[in-house]
Amino acid sequence: MERKITSVAVVMGMTAIILGAFGAHALKKQLTVDELVTFETGVKYQLYHALFLLFVGLTTLVTEKGKKTIFQLVLFGVIFFSGSIYLLATKTISGIDFKPLGIITPIGGTLLILGWAVLLWHILKDKR
Questions:
Q1: Alpha helix (H) ranges present in the chain?
Q2: How far apart are CA 56 and CA 50, in angstroms?
Q3: DSSP 3-state assignment of 78?
Q4: In sequence order, what are the residues at sequence separation of 6 or more whose Cβ sits closer than 8 angstroms to the Cβ of residue 50?
Q5: Is residue 115 a contact partner of residue 67, using CB atoms and an 8 Å limit?
Q6: Is the dihedral of CA 74, 77, 79, 82 positive or negative?
Q7: Burial of 101 (0-12, 13-18, 19+ CB in 10 A)
């Protein structure tokens, strides 16, 4: 499980850097300041959670089952949270109104919070 989690963390981190550069350069002239700030929020949360998954993959404080749970919560959380933000921020470019997808943004945020909560629970119950 560690290899899977750390591999996904690395890919998630790389794509966050790519999307951040894309936003800063290619989208800078295409998006409004508010849309660009929104896009950057998605990038930041994706990068934060890539680092979080890297930690989870490498720590011995969490059981395999716990790591799997955290991994799934964070993976889907990032897809829902950051993914929906990317779509919502770039609607002027795509011409598609993704506003109905806005409901999954807070669901993604909740999944991310739950991932952190599961980590906390595992740390607190560790008797070492």
A1: 2-25, 33-58, 64-89, 91-94, 104-125
A2: 10
A3: helix
A4: 9, 10, 12, 13, 16
A5: no
A6: negative
A7: middle
Please classify residue 49 by burial: count the beta carbons closer than 10 Å to its beta carbon, then call 0-12 exposed, 13-18 middle and 19+ buried: buried
Q: Would you state the structure tokens that stand for residue 80, as one six-digit string?
A: 């829902």
Closest by CA position to 66, among listed 110, 11, 123 = 123
Tens of each residue's pLDDT in the chain, 128 residues? 889 999 999 999 999 999 999 888 888 888 889 989 999 999 999 999 999 999 999 999 999 999 999 999 999 999 999 999 999 999 888 888 888 888 999 999 999 999 999 999 999 987 76
> Which among 107, 127, 112 has a CA at the least distance from the CA of 56?
112
The pTM of this model reads 0.91
Which single residue is written with the structure tokens 């109905």?
Answer: 100
d(CA 72, CA 89): 25
